Amino acid sequence: MTAFVIEPLCVGMNAGPVDTRQTDGHPGDAGPGRRSYIGAMLMFLVTGGDRPVLVDTGPLDEDWNRQYHGCIVERPAELEPANVLARHGIELADIEIVINTHLHWDHCSNNNLFPRAKFYVQRDELVYASDPLPVHRRAYEKAPGLSPGWLDVWGRIELVDGDAEIAPGVSVVQLAGHSPGSQGVLVDGAVPYLIAGDAVNTYADWEGNETVPHLPPGVNTSLLDCYASFEKIEHLGCEVIPSHDLSLLDHGPFAGAHKA
């Protein structure tokens, strides 16, 4: 019996748009003289199978994010992907499978760090990322002076059409809405876990409110697809792991997902 472990790995702290920057602080400190954070930039490491699987690769350094995306994403040395993985006994060259939930800058900018990896992306996502609507071009780094992270590994992209198993016990589930080819990663178990990507940004979004059972992401290409994806998730019978929830920094690994 294989026991999977899913480890949320922080590779940046999002303090919001540049014009709301406060002085240095810590997560959760929103008082005077403190910087408050609105989300975490995360990778997810799935272990327990025959080889580790990495979900998303995160953003670049703070200067890049400030200049090209107008936001403050702190990434000190200890949050650089290589250092984060090393603390879990993983070298960059150990990763042979990377699943990009979608191709926005904050989920794929470090793809080129992984010299032996293949990158699993929905075909619909790559098609849209190549020629997005003007309102979405910045998210895909389809703008002057920018080269998107997925382009750096063009020859190692494996296109997926819909739902598919990527490795034993680890599958992708297409969850269109935030983008046409957004996908989650389903990890088998008695109660499976779904790494939802930006289909679900936070636990509060998934829990919704008294009138709306689940709240769609603020950035989307189709609200109809968002709600169809919510219904799909409900039918999976899984535990949902959101993409940017700050509480994941205190959660530790999701363990105990088993596959016979």
In short:
With 260 residues, the protein is α/β, with parallel strands linked by helices. 17% of the residues lie in helices and 27% in strands. It has one domain: Ribonuclease Z/Hydroxyacylglutathione hydrolase-like (Metallo-beta-lactamase, Chain A), CATH 3.60.15.
Which geometry do the CA atoms define?
A: globular
The largest sheet, given as strand count, sense and whether it forms a barrel, is: 8 strands, mixed
CATH superfamily: Ribonuclease Z/Hydroxyacylglutathione hydrolase-like
Task: Please state the average pLDDT score.
Answer: 91
Characterization of the model:
It is a single chain. The chain has 260 residues and is an alpha/beta fold. The protein has one domain (2-250): Ribonuclease Z/Hydroxyacylglutathione hydrolase-like (Metallo-beta-lactamase, Chain A), CATH 3.60.15. The chain has six helices and 13 strands. The strands form two sheets. Strands 1, 2, 3, 4, 5, 6, 7 and 13 form an eight-stranded mixed beta sheet that branches. The chain is globular, with a radius of gyration of 17 Å. Residues 20-34 have low confidence and may be disordered.
